[in-house]
UniProtKB/TrEMBL annotation:
Keywords: ATP-binding, Cell inner membrane, Cell membrane, Kinase, Membrane, Nucleotide-binding, Transferase, Transmembrane, Transmembrane helix, Ubiquinone, Ubiquinone biosynthesis. This is Ubiquinone biosynthesis regulatory protein kinase UbiB. Belongs to the protein kinase superfamily. ADCK protein kinase family. The chain crosses the membrane at residues 496-515. Residues 88-341 form the ABC1 atypical kinase-like domain. Pathway: Cofactor biosynthesis; ubiquinone biosynthesis [regulation]. InterPro entries: ABC1_dom (IPR004147), Kinase-like_dom_sf (IPR011009), UbiB (IPR010232), UbiB_bact (IPR045308), UbiB_kinase (IPR050154). CDD domains: UbiB (cd13972). The gene is ubiB.
Length: 517
């Protein structure tokens, strides 16, 4: 019943803001204009289409706002007016009352904000789909940002997820292609990450982990700045972190005015992305412009600043190796290796002909190489690969959905910073260096060093274990005798079954002869 009512509400909101008109207007058909005239009767849709879409997504709730945030970075797929309007969803979602935020802080942390902090700003500085942020100052003088979860979020998200699960089940039942895409597993992954985002203690832990990976003063400290977590002021609904100052990454004019090198910034973004994915296996998976800033402080000018750590992704060692080999094979245009990797990993049926899959992948990817990023759309490449995958029954891997989303976001950010950036040439040297570290002598030395702690415990026990094994009585003769007895019993059983089969055959033959007379 809840799912049905939610569906009715979605249909009502879509009709209220004229989203049906927006969809139909994009269909090329002689009857489209006449249909639009009929649908406009009795409705006044004076607001621009992008504004109507944004308002509809805001009305429908956080899941739809998340969808709009991702869509806003894909200016190669949607018109500029819609992209500009959807960009407002990144940090300008209507806030909830400050009194509610104060009550939540008091409930979770046990004291009023005026008692906890030297100062607390009532007006939120940013408001997103899941939470909003207030600036404050600790009593020791440090500036902080206090993130407060929106009230009653879980029931709203659960209703939308029920609707998505129902839609996924329907798709699997009515479409063989839908079953290949594993929509229910994809929704389950989405469910997991959305509920993780509702736990701000988990987000604080993600932030702390990412800060360690890009520790200030470390080898990667000049790439990414991650705020420090103030653990004494955190709970499941409150997340207090060091206040970050910078310029939103999509404000190119302000970045240039501040003296930031946009070309270097674009290259650094690619390096940060691939470092998180392949070196750490732990990556920020919500990299829309509202969550990424650039430092304008002279001491750290041009460094990325990461915010909002509610959604992160993890890759296993198998996933990292598989993906890195695929990327390198793509960059080298070794499509036979790409096809082989797909077959060996089980992503395609084992009977798939390697040369056929190789030819299909080459036809998809070859036209896009040797072009600047401005002329390459990763979305279009993925679309063509998706169309090709239908022929070969390629199974979508749900654990990589966040990775795909992150790569699309990185492409959108790179396109805004430096349209001439060659994504392939920027990423290829890094991946080659990473693979050399994984499979060369350096990799062997690192693995030996990592395993040495376990060996330190096992080696002293090795002589005793060897002596114990050698001192055991020799039972090979008993084992051989038992195997011979089992073999004799098996042969006797086989002879008995052959006799029974012969008797049954004679009986059936006699019965058939009797019936025929």
């Amino acid at each position: 019943m809840f799912t049905f009512l939610r569906l009715i509400r979605i249909m009502f909101v879509s009709f209220r803001y004229g989203l049906d008109e927006l969809v139909i207007s994009g269909i090329q058909h002689p009857w489209t204009e006449r249909l639009l005239v009929v649908m406009r009767l009795g409705r006044k849709l004076h607001a621009p289409r992008g504004e109507r879409l944004r308002l509809a997504l805001e009305t429908l709730g956080p899941i739809f706002v998340k969808f709009g945030q991702v869509l806003s970075t894909r200016r190669d797929l949607i018109p500029a007016d819609i992209a500009d309007e959807l960009a407002r969803l990144q940090d300008r979602v209507p806030p909830f009352p400050s009194e509610v935020a104060i009550a939540s802080i008091r409930k979770e942390l046990g004291r009023h904000p005026d008692e906890l902090f030297a100062s607390f700003e009532r007006e939120p500085v940013a408001s997103a789909s899941i939470a909003q942020v207030h600036f404050a100052v600790l009593k020791d003088g440090r500036d902080v940002a206090v993130k407060v979860l929106r009230p009653n979020m879980a029931p709203v998200i659960d209703k939308d997820l029920r609707l998505l699960r129902a839609a996924a089940t329907l798709i699997e039942k009515i479409s063989a292609d839908g079953r290949r895409l594993k929509p229910r597993e994809v929704v389950a992954e989405f469910d997991k990450y959305l509920h993780d985002e509702l736990d701000l203690l988990r987000e604080a832990a993600n932030c702390s982990q990412l800060r360690r990976n890009f520790a200030p003063g470390g080898p990667r400290g000049d790439l990414l700045i991650v705020p420090e977590v103030m653990w004494d002021y955190c709970s499941s609904s409150i997340f207090t972190m060091e206040r970050m100052r910078g310029i939103p990454v999509n404000h190119a004019a302000r970045l240039v005015e501040a003296g930031v090198d946009l070309k270097k910034l674009a290259r650094d973004g690619v390096e940060i992305c691939f470092t998180q994915m392949f070196a750490d296996g732990f990556f920020h998976a919500d990299m829309h412009p509202g969550n990424i800033y650039v430092s304008d402080d002279p001491r750290t000018l041009g460094r990325y600043i990461a915010l909002d750590f509610g959604i992160v992704g993890s890759l296993s060692e198998f996933d990292k190796n598989y993906l890195a080999q695929n990327f390198l094979a793509f960059f080298r245009r070794d499509y036979r290796q790409v096809a082989r990797l797909h077959i060996e990993s089980g992503w395609v049926p084992p009977g798939t002909r390697e040369e056929e899959l190789e030819g299909a992948i080459r036809a998809c990817c070859e036209p896009y190489f040797d072009r600047p990023l401005a002329e390459i759309s990763l979305g279009q490449v993925l679309l063509r690969l998706f169309q090709t995958s239908r022929r070969f029954n390629v199974e979508i891997q749900p654990q990589l959905v966040l990775l795909q989303k992150t790569l699309l976001n990185v492409e959108g950010l790179g396109r805004e910073l430096d349209p001439s950036l060659d994504l392939w040439k920027t990423a290829k040297p890094y991946l080659e260096r990473w693979m050399n570290e994984r499979v060369g002598w350096a990799a062997l030395r690192n693995n030996l060093r990592r395993e040495s702690q376990q060996w330190a415990q096992m080696l002293p026990e090795l002589p005793r274990l060897v002596h114990h094994q050698l001192a055991r009585p020799d039972r090979s003769a008993d084992t051989l005798a038992e195997l011979q007895r089992l073999r004799a019993a098996q042969q006797q059983t086989n002879r008995l079954m052959a006799v029974i089969a012969a008797v049954l055959a004679v009986g059936v033959a006699v019965a058939l002869w009797a019936v025929s007379r």
